[in-house]
């Protein structure tokens, strides 16, 4: 077996090298990724690591030649990983009916809504796919955490230190006013620094998703308290500010308020001093920009492929044909100008029209004309996108309350995509609803919304781990301001909460099966006699 593995590995290396020599780097990348996934699939512990690495480190704003939309391609990979992990553990864990029911609850709501308001099989499949994937992932991670608490804690601590490097990269992005890799490989210019170079995207490709990641790492590092925990806390607070994501700020403030409420008896002058020191260092790191990273002010045009495109035209071009249509699953940036979403295309209809183009793109800032402190302050003082969200809420509410069937059963899976493509919101901004709860109600009805809220409440009650509860509070608050389902890096925060909660909950810990008691020799003969007539 070892010899066959060596031969297989050597063959894959030769094949990848051959593709590289012929200039087909995408095929070489596919061979390498396939070999890596094959190695991961041999061990459930590797699957658990791979789920979080893929969700947090692979952006969905870059298309390297996926056979379908990047979000759905990565969703399929994660689904296969989790499903195979459950197959490998079937003998040990079995197929518990409660876990299966929880995993299938939201997909069942989507199917019900699709049957009541029938628009074909494709919308049901597209709408059910993310919910089914995340349900199976949560089931797999909870079961693995029950049996191997140490692995989950190691993953969480490793992610906090990984986030320090991501925060350094985010600082480089805002200081240099460029997004390396994303500017070259993003499948649409709206996911480049030409759109808004004043906000950091980390490795997520989108400031809102990076803000979600930074929020989660702050809360995990603060509650797990690993060695030198204040380093990842400070780094991610810097990243949180640089992202300019107000929804993540709200989620962080609510989660930290909840944490202080639980820890108020442990308050001390030392803790207050530590908080003041972390705040001061965070402000200094946000305000400081190394002169070597500042862009060249003498350049006539901004650097980067996307920036050149933005400055070449008087107004911003509409999304390219390769960019998917807007969907419930994608948030728009919280700036006055919002990006379209990377979601699955809506089913084609005879009356479908192109979404309304975005507003003109701001040119990439040059020099030190805009610093990060001013940008963060403007995010609080600018009410434009907040007003836009109220407009979206009124539009969604009108669609929900159309009649009793739309209130109870919704308009069907992908109904928001059909509305945004055929009707749209006439405010010149991104064609998204920007509210997970209302979008869920719009698509799947009051039944679906009640099931979603019930799952969040059930998770909060059952997962009594402090890190898990803080993540749930932050996540539940933030998704009120954007649509989450196709952003893997954002939903992974919920999955991390499930894993940490299952690892620390004694009622969910794995128990050994009771051994059958041995009967004494005289017991078997005495039992029939005792049961006879008296």
UniProtKB/TrEMBL annotation:
<keyword id="KW-1133">Transmembrane helix</keyword>
<feature type="transmembrane region" description="Helical">
    <location>
        <begin position="100"/>
        <end position="118"/>
    </location>
</feature>
<feature type="transmembrane region" description="Helical">
    <location>
        <begin position="472"/>
        <end position="500"/>
    </location>
</feature>
<feature type="transmembrane region" description="Helical">
    <location>
        <begin position="440"/>
        <end position="460"/>
    </location>
</feature>
<feature type="transmembrane region" description="Helical">
    <location>
        <begin position="12"/>
        <end position="40"/>
    </location>
</feature>
<feature type="transmembrane region" description="Helical">
    <location>
        <begin position="269"/>
        <end position="288"/>
    </location>
</feature>
<keyword id="KW-0472">Membrane</keyword>
<feature type="transmembrane region" description="Helical">
    <location>
        <begin position="237"/>
        <end position="262"/>
    </location>
</feature>
<feature type="compositionally biased region" description="Low complexity">
    <location>
        <begin position="297"/>
        <end position="315"/>
    </location>
</feature>
<feature type="transmembrane region" description="Helical">
    <location>
        <begin position="124"/>
        <end position="142"/>
    </location>
</feature>
<keyword id="KW-0812">Transmembrane</keyword>
<feature type="region of interest" description="Disordered">
    <location>
        <begin position="297"/>
        <end position="370"/>
    </location>
</feature>
<feature type="compositionally biased region" description="Low complexity">
    <location>
        <begin position="323"/>
        <end position="341"/>
    </location>
</feature>
<protein>
    <recommendedName>
        <fullName>O-antigen ligase-like membrane protein</fullName>
    </recommendedName>
</protein>
<feature type="transmembrane region" description="Helical">
    <location>
        <begin position="47"/>
        <end position="66"/>
    </location>
</feature>
<feature type="transmembrane region" description="Helical">
    <location>
        <begin position="208"/>
        <end position="231"/>
    </location>
</feature>
<feature type="transmembrane region" description="Helical">
    <location>
        <begin position="72"/>
        <end position="88"/>
    </location>
</feature>
């Amino acid at each position: 077996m070892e010899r066959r593995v060596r031969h297989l590995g050597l063959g894959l290396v030769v094949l990848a090298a051959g593709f590289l020599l012929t200039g087909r780097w995408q095929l070489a990348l596919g061979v390498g990724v396939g070999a890596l996934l094959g190695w991961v699939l041999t061990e459930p512990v590797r699957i658990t690591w791979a789920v979080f690495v893929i969700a947090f480190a692979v952006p969905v704003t870059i298309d390297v030649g996926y056979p379908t939309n990047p979000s759905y391609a990565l969703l399929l990979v994660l689904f296969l990983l989790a499903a195979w992990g459950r197959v490998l553990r079937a003998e040990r864990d079995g197929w518990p009916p409660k876990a299966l029911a929880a995993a299938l609850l939201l997909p069942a709501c989507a199917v019900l809504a699709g049957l009541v308001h029938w628009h074909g099989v494709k919308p049901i499949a597209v709408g059910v796919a993310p919910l089914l994937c995340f349900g199976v992932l949560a089931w797999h991670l909870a079961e693995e955490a029950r049996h191997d608490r140490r692995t989950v804690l190691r993953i969480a601590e490793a992610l906090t230190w990984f986030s320090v490097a991501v925060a350094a990269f985010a600082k480089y992005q805002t200081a240099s006013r460029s997004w390396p890799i994303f500017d070259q490989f993003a499948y649409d210019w709206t996911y480049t620094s030409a759109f808004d170079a004043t906000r950091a995207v980390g490795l997520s490709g989108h400031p809102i998703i990076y803000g979600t990641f930074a929020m989660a790492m702050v809360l995990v590092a603060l509650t797990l308290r690993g060695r030198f925990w204040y380093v990842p806390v400070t780094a991610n607070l810097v990243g949180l500010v640089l992202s300019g994501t107000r929804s993540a700020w709200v989620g962080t403030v609510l989660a930290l308020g909840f944490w202080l409420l639980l820890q108020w008896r442990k308050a001390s002058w030392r803790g207050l001093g530590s908080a003041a020191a972390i705040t001061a260092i965070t402000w200094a790191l946000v305000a400081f920009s190394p002169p070597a990273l500042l862009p060249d002010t003498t350049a006539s045009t901004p650097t980067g492929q996307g920036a050149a495109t933005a400055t070449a035209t008087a107004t911003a071009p509409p999304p390219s044909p390769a960019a998917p249509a807007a969907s419930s699953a994608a948030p728009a940036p919280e700036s006055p100008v919002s990006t379209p979403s990377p979601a699955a295309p809506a089913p084609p209809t005879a009356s479908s029209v192109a979404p309304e183009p975005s507003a003109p793109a701001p040119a990439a800032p040059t020099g030190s004309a805009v610093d990060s402190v001013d940008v963060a302050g403007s995010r609080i003082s600018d009410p434009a996108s907040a007003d836009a969200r109220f407009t979206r809420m009124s539009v969604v509410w009108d669609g929900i309350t159309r009649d009793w069937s739309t209130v109870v059963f919704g308009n069907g899976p992908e109904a928001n995509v059909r509305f945004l493509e055929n009707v749209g919101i006439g405010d010149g901004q991104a064609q998204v609803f920007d509210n997970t709860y209302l979008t869920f109600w719009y698509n799947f009805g009051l039944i679906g919304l009640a099931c979603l809220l019930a799952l969040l409440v059930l998770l909060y009650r059952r997962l009594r781990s402090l890190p898990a509860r803080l993540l749930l509070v932050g996540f539940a608050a933030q998704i009120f301001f954007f649509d989450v389902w196709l952003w893997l890096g954002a939903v992974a925060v919920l999955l991390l909460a499930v894993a940490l909660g299952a690892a620390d909950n004694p009622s969910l810990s794995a128990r050994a099966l009771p051994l059958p008691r041995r009967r004494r020799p005289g017991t078997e003969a005495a039992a029939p006699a005792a049961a006879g007539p008296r």
